[in-house]
Structures are given as C-alpha cells and as structure tokens.
Amino acid sequence: MSGGYHGRVLWVNLTERRARAEPLDPQLAADYIGGRGLSTRILYDRLAPETNPLSPDTPLILATGPLNGTGAPLSGRYEVVTRSPLTGTVLSSNSGGRFGVDLKRTGYDAVVIEGAAETPCYLWIHDGEVEFRDADDLWGLDTHRTTERLLAETHPRAGVACIGPAGERGVLFASVMNDRDRAAGRGGAGCVMGAKHLKAVVVHGGQRTPIADQEGFEAARGEARTAIGEAPVTKNALKEFGTAVLVHLINEYGGLPTRNFQEGHFPDADSVSGETLKETLFERSVACAACPVACGRATRTARRSGEGPEYETIWALGPMCGVRDLEAIAEANYTCNELGLDTITAGSTIACAMELWEWGCFDEGVRAQIRADLGTDLTFGNAQAMVRCVELMGQREGFGALLAEGSARLAARFGHPELSMSVKGLELPAYDPRAFRAMAVAFATSPRGACHLRAYMIGPEALATPGAVDRFSEAGKAALVKLFQDLSAVIDSLGMCIFTSFALNPDHYARLLATVTGVERTTEEMLAVGERIWNLERLFNGREGFTHADDTLPPRLLREGLPGGHSKAQPVDLGPMLTAYYRVRGWDAEGRPTPETLARLGLG
Questions:
Q1: Are the CB atoms for 120 and 197 separated by under 8 Å?
Q2: In CATH, which of 3.40.50.620, 3.60.9.10, 3.90.1150.10, 1.10.20.10 is domain 8-204?
Q3: What CATH number belongs to 236-423?
Q4: Which of 25, 360, 533, 540 makes the best surface tag, with the fewest CB within 10 Å?
Q5: What are 312-332's pLDDT values in tens digits?
Q6: Residue 567: pLDDT above 80?
Q7: Whether 299 contacts 330, CB under 8 Å
Q8: Residue 187 near residue 126, CB atoms below 8 Å
C-alpha cells in the first residue's frame, strides 16, 4: 500500500467470537479513499438487499481515512457505517474527538463487525491483538460510567466508542458515543450496536500513519493551517463561541425553525445564544485531535457538567420545542450524551409530540399517561416536559417508548404524518429551507435523510463562505449543491472535519491527499471520487426501495410560507430545482443514475 494506509482491514464475527485481518484492496482505497467512501463500498457489497438493519447479517463498519494520525489540521474524524434502523437508508455517521486517531494507531484502516454476540461483550483491539471480553456488568451503564470502567480495565489512554441504555434498549436513533461526549449520531448506529450485544469497541496502539512525501506534506499542511487561521469563521467565530455562534445569525435570517417549523424566528433567541452560553455555562474550549479551532464547549450547570450543547442541540431542545431555558437545554444535552441519544431527532420528536398534543391528536387515555409520565402537560415552551421526555425516551419507558421510534412513526401512529419534520424518516436539522433554498435541495436529496452535513449550504447562503449567493434564488443552486455534496463525501473519506470547508478549497484537500499517499491526483479526479461515493449511496437506497418520490420535504415547507420574523419566505418550490439537480448529476427524470454516469464512475 502507498502512504496513508496500513493496508489492513479487521473482520470481526461476533457470533463466532472470531476475528481475522485481511489486506485492504488498493483499488478500493484508490476509488473510495477511506472513511465514508470505503465503508459504503464494503456495506454495499456485503449486505444483501432488504436485510433488516437489526439483523446479525447487517455489518457495522468503523473506518478511518488516510489523513487520520498524520497531524493534518482537523483530521480527527472517523466514520460509522451501516443500514439505518430509523430510516432504512444507507447510514454513514461521522464523529470527532480522538477515537479516529486511536483507531488508526491499531494498524487497521477499518473494522467490519458482523454477527451478534449471544451475551453482551466488548472488543479490545490492541498491539495487533483482538479480544472478545464479556460486558454483562457493563450492560445498563451510561456512556460515561462505561468509558471510565473500560479505561480502567484496558489502558488509561485507550479510545472508547460505546453505547448507553438507548442503544441497548433499541431506541431507533441511538448514537455511538466516543470520548465520553462525542457522538456518531443520526440514524441509529447505536441501535445496531445494541442489537449485536456489542457494548463498546476499545482501541489502543502505536502504529504511525505512513506519509509518502513528508516534505511535501509539511508544506501542504502549513498552507492548510494558514488558511484555517485566517478564515473568519475558523479564526474567530468558532473559537470564541463554538457552533452556538449560529443561533443569532440564523435567527436574524428568519431561518431558525421554531415550534416544529411553524415559525422561523425565535423571539427569545438571546437566552439560548452562544454569547449567553459563554457568559453563563462555559468552562473551557475543547478540541478534537489535531484541531487548532477548538469549537467544543465544556460547560457546567448548577447540578452537572459535560460537553455542549452545540448549536444543533440548543436548537432541537430549545427553539424547536419553544424552550428558552438554557440550563434545562444543557441538562437535557448531558442526558442525551450519557444515555446515547441523537439530540436532533430527540428534540424534533419531542416538538412533534408537542404539536400533536396542542392539536388534540392524543385521546384522553394517552393524554393521561403523558401527564402521569411527565408530571405536566406536553406544551411548547415547557422545559420540564422536554427534559423528562429525554429521560423517558433514552430508557424507553412509558410515553418514551413511543418517542423512541422517532417523529415519523409517532406522527403516523396518531394520524398526522405531516407533522413529522423529516425527509426519508430522518428529522431536519436547524435550518428552515424556506429561508435557504440550496439547503432545500440538500435536505431533499441527502442519502441518509435530511442532513446539513452532506452539503453545508449555509456556508454560501448565510456565511458568505467561500462566497455569497442569493439564498432565495433558485439559479445555479443545483450545480452548487452537487459540488458541496461531492466535496463533503471526500472530506468524510479523508478523515477530516467538515469545518475545514470554511477555509480550504478542493486544491488544499488534493495536495494533502497526494503528499500523504504519494499518488498524484488532480482536484477533478478527487472530486470524481466524491461523485462516485454519492452515486453508490444512491444505488444502495435504490435497491432498498427508495425512489425520486422520497426526494422531498415535509408538506408544511412545500405549502406554507414563513408567517413572520425576518424572512417572510414563500413555500419551497422544489420541483424545478430537483429537475435541474437530476440533470447536473447525470440522473434520469426519475432520479436514477444513467448507465453513462455509472460507466464514467466505474459503477457499471
């Protein structure tokens, strides 16, 4: 293998408690880079169509990229890939912290986990060895106590990725948590891990990532660090206030979804802003491996401490639910991390339940159960109800058992599927697409369901990064979304953070990749890898029954304008933008990749 790779994939069979190392196919590395791309290819080849996501036959893949462990800026990310139990789509979930580098140092580029253990266990991968250890005494523990116990049992500097009670009890949007408070969230990878009776993966090693051209790499890394140190978002905003710096900005644009997307402006935004968080709860900044930005926030309330809440979490547990109590939001965030819950889906599902309550969709029996479980009514703005819902859903108790299914199933169960603010079953993040039209296309076409990280169009539409575009215009949005989608797939496959895109251009990534691997690749060739990954994800979803009809938005966003605030926007006219998007993608009118496109990308 060339630089950037150890050239080994670890295959684990939990049913048989057997592990084997196999060579990494150099052609797969060339075609898919690593991380998200490599894992998706393995999943596509390994998983039979229509396999239940919670079947022992469904692989769970943890993968690194060629830049993990090199010291390239913001190169601490790793990927968890499987089929989502929440949506049925392909699921690739990305997380930071140090675990990605720790995994790389074991000497494996990826770990493919198949089968299911008969009883709870964890994997201990270290010094070229793989141990299957019993975890009966860990089952039921939260992620923090699990991590502490495992560090004591294995190595104090090991990397730990584990699940909490939410994953064990089958919450469909359970996260895999690493480094205590970092989440591979969205879509339920933690639920898949729980179905396999796998409590944790613990890793430690001393294998360095090989670099083919050290001198060239140092130059490329220096250029990247300089760009990150000079770009306004990474130099100032994220350093000073973390991701919560976006609360005021997105609210001013009228695009901060409020009360289950009924409005786009939250009058009490100042009470939950990044500035207020820094004044009241902030203790110190927290950085992932090789990160000079340190956008993480260590915080403390009167009762507890932890990391976060980040922007998406503040929004989901705050304005989305009409809640303005920042301390309650932080407490709920800590609980999500400890139980192992995706905060976006958790908050959005609670908001959906609040609207169902206010619409009178629950009969008296259900309303009585909810009051008994929560000790209060389930109304917008009720912080007590929000916090209690988080606790119940993470344990799958009482009304929490219904919330644990996500908003799409909850809304359908009570006769109003239109009240789930989701795409392909995955809840929208904290940007109202009526205020950001490129985000509308990105949400509708994202392979794992509504996702801002598959193409962060807020960069050009709100932050003027790398350049400003008219957020209400449809012109040129299809091609712009495609470019961001392809580049995001590359960034996830390299092992880098999406926040680098605020400062770096595709040439930066191409130089970093070429100097590490020793294989020259033009920017165009690198972006073609991203396009290949994107089309492969489309093929995966297609064979699982998803069609162009699933490339849509919640009815509210297509039929209702924003009623007020700073952006009295019209409903999203998605059809013309979607037609243009299919055309620039090289797909037919039904959203299927054409034979010519597949042949060009080597997917024929």
A1: yes
A2: 3.60.9.10
A3: 1.10.569.10
A4: 360
A5: 999 999 999 999 999 999 999
A6: no
A7: yes
A8: no
